[in-house]
Design goal:
The protein has seven helices and 15 strands. It is α+β, with helices and mostly antiparallel strands. It is elongated.
Length: about 325
């Protein structure tokens, strides 16, 4: 098997795991250590980086049969930026970024189906299903590695900036600009993944930092605040949990939010004539270094129409509301 551009730069163990679905990793490492897997006719270690054109010999192995998943329908998404190295799209709310955890397919599977000629398409980062906005997809492995290294703060001069628009219930305190609270992932009694705040010295949490700036306030009861939220760490559900822990849940959040408020907005009983049936969290801005040119790049995605309509309704004087 020859390595193409889609696997250029990938570790041998990760490459085998990708193409040998269902084979236990313990078995993969065993055949690597025994020398049964050959790279360019020689023995190779699990962490060997594969190069374009390398020849990999894999011994016969039985892969586990899996239930056939329904094929992902081809779908393109609004493109914010694209070149030969990366693609930035404006993901709509309600669409998972990838299949799994009850989802047959997501953005990346639909993109691959819509672009059968593409040799490589991989997510650089993730967004929650309920979150809309900017999502980066690498079109080469080198771009993927460079961007993910930047996301992990491997090089402070190439830091990633991720800013979200969030509408929360209540009046956000002007002085609360930095949230530095550890987060811990766990499964609840029903097996659902959740996140909670924990003490920094508890040993079970990971440090998580969120920066908050008030962008607007609305007096409609119970009061609302529009926030610009920048994350310095990319933990699961970080923004939603940090804001809720501060006493101001994200509007429409189905997991950590105010369910009575969400229902009132969805039914149009809080603002007559205006229904809001999603979570108000939108990835509005990404700033990063281009993986090939080294030039700074800033991308922006406008608020979705549903979010704009809600803000307009909240901003109208009471006497003007239907």
């Amino acid at each position: 098997m020859r390595i193409d551009s889609g696997s250029d730069g990938q570790r041998l163990d990760n490459f085998l795991a990708k193409i040998l679905k269902g084979v236990p990793k313990t078995h993969l490492y065993r055949v690597i250590r025994s020398g049964e897997v050959r790279v360019n006719k020689g023995r190779a270690a699990a962490d060997t980086r594969l190069g374009l054109g390398d020849e990999v010999r894999i011994p016969p192995m039985r892969t586990a049969e899996r239930e056939a998943a329904p094929a992902a329908p081809g779908r393109e998404f609004p493109v914010v930026f694209e070149d030969e190295h990366l693609l930035a799209i404006d993901k709509p709310a309600g669409v998972a970024v990838h299949g799994g955890s009850g989802e047959s397919f997501g953005v990346i599977e639909q993109l691959r189906r819509a672009r059968p000629q593409a040799e490589f398409l991989e997510l650089v980062h993730r967004l929650d299903k309920e979150t809309s906005g900017l999502l980066l997809v690498a079109k080469t492995r080198k771009a993927l590695v460079a961007l993910q290294n930047d996301l992990r703060w491997r090089n402070p001069e190439r830091a990633f900036g991720k800013t979200y628009a969030a509408l929360v219930a209540g009046a956000w305190p002007e002085k609360l600009k930095v949230i530095d609270v550890a987060l811990h992932k766990y499964l609840d009694a029903e097996g659902t993944r959740r996140v909670r705040t924990v003490e920094a010295d508890s040993g079970e949490g990971r440090r998580s930092i969120t920066l908050v700036r008030v962008a607007g306030r609305f007096a409609v009861v119970p009061g609302f605040s529009l926030l610009d939220v920048t994350i310095k760490t990319g933990r699961t559900h970080q923004i939603r949990v940090h804001l809720a822990d501060a006493g101001h849940v994200v509007v429409g959040d189905p997991k950590y939010g105010d369910f009575a408020l969400n229902k009132a907005l969805a039914r149009g009983t809080l603002l007559a004539g205006t229904r809001f049936e999603r979570m108000f969290l939108h990835a509005k801005r990404l700033s990063f270094t281009h993986p090939a040119s080294g030039e700074p790049l800033v991308l922006e995605a406008a608020l979705p129409e549903a979010c704009e309509r809600l803000l307009q309704a909240l901003a109208r004087p009471a006497m003007e509301r239907p």
